[in-house]
Amino acid sequence: MTSILFVCSGNIFRSLVAEYALKAHLGSRAGYIIGSAGIEASPQEIHPVVLAGLLEKGVDPSRHRQRKLTRDLIEATTVIVAMGRNHQSWIRGEFGREVPLFNHVCYGIDQPILDVHEIIPDWRDQPDQSRDYLRLVIDHIWDGVPHLLDRLPAL
């Protein structure tokens, strides 16, 4: 059984989207355990734009519960994919494990997927820009997952 874990900061945006996108792309294929976690995972709600974007894709993450990344999760997972460089560094520092970036695995580019506050520091005061960025990232992750499936045997 192959287990795949996506990691971001809060486990309510990037890693959550990747988890649900991969589950949707896998469909009923057996042999995979898919999950996500955050290096912080402070209690927060899924942003309404993220929830709506995933519902539009045909998946319902409303039952998702944030999860903090732990040593047990790290040790139980075959493939871990980080969304940002800070996640890679944190995993390396806390657990001594090297993990690839989502964009590197899926698109062959060595770039992180930045959180909305990293792109738009005053994101709460910029609702239109924030919404557009969240939707862009959802589509980017969703479109990248088939590439991840193609490259999974090499991971």
Automatic annotation (TrEMBL):
Enzyme class: hydrolase
Domain of life: Bacteria
InterPro entries the UniProt entry points to: Ptyr_pPase, Ptyr_pPase_sf
Domain Phosphotyrosine protein phosphatase I, chain residue ranges per copy: 2-151
The protein's Enzyme Commission number: 3.1.3.48
Gene Ontology molecular function, alphabetical: protein tyrosine phosphatase activity
Swiss-Prot/TrEMBL keywords: Hydrolase
A Pfam family it matches: LMWPc
UniProt-listed SUPFAM superfamilies: Phosphotyrosine protein phosphatases I
Protein name listed in UniProt: Putative Low molecular weight protein-tyrosine-phosphatase
Species, as recorded: Nitrospira defluvii
